[in-house]
Each structure stands twice: as C-alpha cells, then as structure tokens.
Amino acid sequence: MDNLLKKICTARGISGDEGSVREIIINEIKDFADEYYTDNLGNLIVFKKGKKRPVKKLMISAHMDEVGLIVTDVTGDGYLRFDEVGGIDRRVLPGRRVVFSNGVSGVIGVKPIHLCTSDERNAIPKYGSMFIDIGAESREDALTHISLGACACFEPLYEDNGFTIKSKAIDDRAGCFMMIKMLRTELEYDMYFTFAVQEEVGLNGAKTAAYSVNPDFAIVLESTTAADVPGVAEAKQVCNVGDGAVIGYMDRRTIYDRGMINGAVRLSEEKGIKLQFKRAVAGGNDAGVIHQSRSGVRTLAISLPCRYLHAQQSLIAKSDIDDVYNLALLLSAEIAGGRL
Question: Most buried one in 10, 36, 123, 165, CB count within 10 A?
Fold first, then answer.
C-alpha cells in the first residue's frame, strides 16, 4: 500500500484534468467494489456492500485533484505566462520545475535579483512577473510543444524515510489512498465512496456527487495545514504533524456535526487513537458543499496534518495516516449502524 500512495501522489491530476488519477483508483478498487461509475463532471462514485445493510446511509469522500498552473499566453521569445489553478503561495514558485501532460518540463523564472529594484527584491513575485521557461527559441517554437490552456503540475518528487513522507499532492491523495484501503477491506455495513474532482477551484465535484448519492451522513478525509514550524506561536500552529488525526468544530465553510465530533472523541479515547483539535477557524474543504446537499447531510472532516500544503513537497507523518484511517473506519461503522 505504501507503493500505492507514491503512485497516486506522483500522478498528474490538476483540477479539471483528474483522469490519470481516476484511472489508477479504478484499477485498484474494481475487484473490490460492487458498483462504480464516473459522472459528467468526472467524480468517481463507488458503492461497496458490507456484511449488513446500514441503518443510516453514509458517504465517505476525498478529492482527486491537485493545484497547478495554466498557460495564459506565450511571449515572442517563447516564455510561457501562467496563472494558478487552485490556491498556491507564490513564494514557493520561483526556481521550481514543473511538468506538462505531454512530458515537456520547464522551470519557473523571474527577473534576475541584481536587476530588481529595492521594492522588487522585497516583494513576493506576482504571476504577471513570472514565466515558465521550457527552452523554446520563440513563440512559434513554444506553441509547437505547449498550447494555450495547457496545465502543469509540480515535478513529482517522493520520499519516504519510514517516519515521514514528502511529496506533491498529498492534499488530497492521502485521503484517496485511505478510501482505497477501506474499499479493499471487508466492511461491516454498505457504504458509498466518492472520489471528487475540482475541490481546489471551488468544491465543484463534491457538490454534484453528494446530490447523486444523497447520504444521511458524510465523512470527508482531507489534509489540513500544520503550521508547527519555527517562528509560529504554539497557539497559532493550527495542528501538529505526528499528533494524530485532526477534527474541528468549524471552518470558513462548515459547522461540523457535534454528534459526529463527540463520537470521534469517544472512539479515540476507547481505542487509543491520537486525535487533536484544529486550533483555528480557517480554510474549508468539500464538507462545505456536502453538508448543504438536498435536505442537509450530517458531516465531519477528519484531516491529516500536513506541512507546506500546496507546495512541491508537502510533509506528513506516517503515523498520522494510521490514526486518520482507523478513526474514520471505526466512526463509519458507528454511523452506518445507527449508533450515533
């Protein structure tokens, strides 16, 4: 399963172009699912029978897409102008290597530091002042390799030292990985799993997936920002890598279900699963649209603490994956069995 996490993290799946990731997931779950299909937006919706019929209909969800860059123009000299697909901290971009779907790679460049004004030296580069250099000689040469609207992702670099993992797209391929693992497990109750598209650009896929499944409850498996780094006060670190699964009472899109929160806390205490509360009301995820679907869905996000989110290499602890997975599996059985 460790090789599977590497496989899906290093796959290319920018918002709106998740096909490669979806194909990997289908190949991994097709022999374990009772039904699966892809909807018009590209969501992969999977049903798996358990030992028993559920009292409450449960949907578990994670998103397949990752942040990236889209080509908006090409200069006469053959440099690619671009904008972001999803939210990216511009400070991490200069000097990074990116790769397009056809295998063409480039490096993100900016004006040389010795030619910058004092204001420019101290400013975060804007998208209009950055470019992707693919080594083209002219606009015409560049357009023979890359078309306008082409999307690039960070170069896939993956490292597992036995304790931590560093990779692009951990948000939210780690969630997809855990759902694949659940689908390959004998479940106590029937459940639905949705591998959603386009989370990073507005939670688009989860909105339609939740409408189709029409669940009573939903668990969203996500990655969330861990700011436990030098220079950040403990109270503002949001959560900590290595301290277990993360839940919160609310974020900028969702007030989470108190009954599900209480159930998660109880199970963590009973089963010795490490659990931490998010120390900030910030951000959002697919729960923001899932909980509003149809007549409402009781929803909780269980997140993986992750440093350097939306960068070329995010960092997570392997022990936290186990805690998120075990808590989600136990809570799902409580929900589906009507014990919550």
Answer: 165
